[in-house]
Amino acid sequence: MPSRPRSQAQDPDEAARAARAEWRSRQLLDAAARLMERDGFHGVSMQALAEEASVSVGLIYRYFGGKDDLLLAVIVDVLEAFATRVPSAVEEAGNDPVERIAAAFRAYCDVIDEHRHAAVLTYRESRTLGSEGRNKIKSMEIDTSEPLRAAIRDGASSGLLIAVDTELVAHDLLLMAHGWALKHWYLEQTLRFDDYVTKQTALVLNAIVEPQHRPHYRHLLATH
């Protein structure tokens, strides 16, 4: 097989720089999420953030224009994870709408568990953003929840689900996913993460799957 022309190959030095930039951006986003959740957006200085991330203040400004940009980036980071992980999970679940609902919810919960500080920050501080930032977040929230809503619509139209309000069911599932972050301090006293996802999945599906179809979904409807 002939080798690719050099112009089409990625330069090793460029690839290394891109990897370092991605790692550094992740480092800053994680540090900002931790600090802003703990101290609030207005209580975090750029110097404190630099110390938390073990970098210089000047380096932060190489990646972000200021605290507002950084806050928006933290929130968008979670939504971008939804945009990647949820459709992938739904696709892997196959064509069954109920399986797709369960897979979507699990993917939402996985992202929330991995971004707990940022998820809490979204609720506490998104109002701090300007209108452009808030509108961007709202648009992304609608877009990233579409795979879940589509699965619910398909389940209802195929007769697998009772007549449900698609928007309300999707809303409830998203709140349950975010609830793991918002009430983590309390829930972790009695529940492991996997138990939380399993029980919440069963709670919702037991309420919306048509009774005659429930035996087929015992693996999703059982709470243990």
From TrEMBL:
Gene3D superfamilies in alphabetical order: Homeodomain-like (1.10.10.60), Tetracycline Repressor, domain 2 (1.10.357.10)
Q: Name one GO molecular function term.
A: transcription cis-regulatory region binding
**Per its UniProt record, what SUPFAM superfamilies does this chain match?**
Homeodomain-like, Tetracyclin repressor-like, C-terminal domain
Q: Which residues form a coiled coil?
A: none
UniProt keyword annotations, A-Z: DNA-binding, Transcription, Transcription regulation
Which residue ranges hold the DNA-binding region? 45-64
Q: Which PANTHER family match?
A: HTH-TYPE TRANSCRIPTIONAL REGULATOR BETI, HTH-TYPE TRANSCRIPTIONAL REGULATOR RUTR
Q: Provide the protein name.
A: TetR family transcriptional regulator
Organism the protein comes from: Halopolyspora algeriensis
